[in-house]
Write a structure and sequence with these properties.
Strand order of the largest sheet: 4-1-5-6-7
Strand content: 5-15%
Order of helices and strands: EEEHEHEHEEHHHHHHHHHHHHHHHH
Largest sheet: 5 strands, parallel
Number of helices: 19
CATH topology of the domain at 3-149: Rossmann fold
Helix content: 55-70%
CATH architecture of the domain at 3-149: 3-Layer(aba) Sandwich
């Protein structure tokens, strides 16, 4: 198998009920994904080749074939529309090794009950028929741009080539056993197995990356994770994912100058890494460099096609710097974000509360809907478990220009958050 030319597709099979409608995923594969992938020429020449497996292995262990596709494929395309557990598990396997070389898609009209952390899911449609061509063009463009812009790909291909030259079956068995432990939610065992694999092969860069991300996910073991990421970039300075993760870890450890340098290096290596841009915006915002922070948030918005996290931060900082709020160029992106957020907060309990509720409140504020702003803000306050939660949102709202901009109920909302912060602080004391 020539994994250097393989685009592995992670998606459901056959017809599946989703949100009260039946979706034919085989039709989508044949009419949307396959033609789009087949139209992509690799930077070094030759065509990208689509692959998918038709086996349902969710109740059992991950197979060798599946493991190799997820670890080594040049590109992975995932459709998360149906919230299929196999799809999410396979996506997790891929992301622990590498986020670059991975693109996620979802259908616009289907409910997603959560935001996938720092991952952008590109929306697509396959009905009516004229949407099929538009979706093919979107997918092909995402693939082409990712393959051209991301220099991480060369690093990974070299690492895979080294492994193929000196195969170590016992190490692959350790890594696969770790993935199967994760499938069983046995995180302690998975971490132990990956630590063994890291110690056994000092030249490997993929396994330390998987371990570092797992440590980050399991309670933020930032020091050990950052040491792993630092080890990776020392061996492979072109691995942009590792630079980004190192920068995020350094930021969490309040090493802002180091984090800024690492995130800038990630962006230099991969101009399409909107998560690195947004993370850098966060460090600069915390440091008080609001102009540069706004620029990186805006850059992240453009690259991610309107991801709500950098979008709301960009609009807030731009309003602060300009002295007035202007949402004219972002109305469509805000509309999409609001639609997704309303689906999230309709869950019981609301997913990702209080942040989904606070984000929705902020969007209503931007539309000058004071009543809606206070409604969602109050619901968000009710779900806060610690004083830093309302404080964080209060500090964001405080950056917005006041009454002259006509943002109704802004001061009332800030006062409500201040009161909630005080009450939660007293309860914690």
């Amino acid at each position: 198998m020539d994994y250097a030319r393989t685009c592995f597709i992670v998606m459901p099979f056959g017809k599946k009920p989703v949100d009260g409608q039946e979706i034919d995923f085989d039709f989508i594969y044949k009419s949307v994904f396959l033609p789009a992938i087949s139209d992509v020429t690799l930077p070094e020449g030759g065509k990208l080749e689509a692959r998918r497996t038709d086996q349902d292995f969710f109740t059992g262990d991950i197979t060798v074939e599946m493991f190799r596709y997820l670890e080594y494929s040049r590109f992975v395309l995932a459709d998360i529309t149906s919230l299929n557990p196999n799809v999410f598990y396979e996506l997790g396997v891929r992301h622990r090794a590498r986020q670059s070389g991975t693109a996620i898609f979802r259908q616009i009209e289907v409910k997603l009950p959560f935001d996938i952390a720092h991952i952008k899911a590109f929306p697509y449609e396959y009905q009516p028929e004229d949407r099929v061509l538009e979706s093919r063009q979107l997918i092909a463009r995402v693939l082409r741009e990712s393959l051209v812009e991301d220099r991480t790909d060369n690093v990974i291909r070299l690492a895979i080539a080294q492994q193929e030259k000196r195969p170590r079956p016992e190490l692959e068995a350790l890594r696969r056993a770790a993935e199967n432990a994760l499938r069983r939610l046995d995180y302690a065992n998975a971490i132990g197995l990956l630590r063994q694999a890291v110690q056994a092969d000092q030249d490997d860069v993929l396994t330390p990356m998987k371990l570092g991300i797992l440590l980050k996910e399991q309670g933020g073991h930032w020091e050990e994770a950052s040491e792993l990421f630092r080890r990776i970039v020392a061996k492979t300075p072109g691995y942009s994912d590792a630079w980004r993760e190192l920068g995020v870890a350094q930021g969490k450890m309040k090493l802002d100058r180091d984090g800024e340098a690492s995130l800038r290096q990630a962006i230099e290596l991969n101009a399409g890494d909107f998560d690195a841009m947004a993370s850098l915006g966060g460090i600069l915002k915390r440091r008080g460099d609001l102009s540069d922070a706004a620029a990186f948030y805006r850059q992240s918005v453009q690259v991610s096609n309107g991801h709500s996290y950098p979008l709301l931060n960009a609009l807030t900082l731009e309003a602060h710097l300009r002295g007035s709020l202007d949402i004219s160029r972002d109305r469509l992106a805000l509309k999409r974000a609001e639609k997704s957020l309303r689906l999230q907060v309709a869950d019981d309990p609301p997913y990702n509360a209080p942040w989904s509720l606070f984000d929705l409140a902020q969007i209503r504020l931007f539309y000058k809907d004071g009543e809606g702003f206070l409604e969602f803000l109050s619901k968000g306050v009710e779900t806060c478990a610690a004083s830093w939660m309302p404080k964080t949102f209060r500090e964001t709202l405080a950056l917005l220009p006041g009454g002259a901009d006509g943002l109704p109920a802004l001061e009332e909302g800030i006062e409500q958050l201040r009161n909630a912060e005080a009450e939660l602080g007293s309860a914690q004391d």
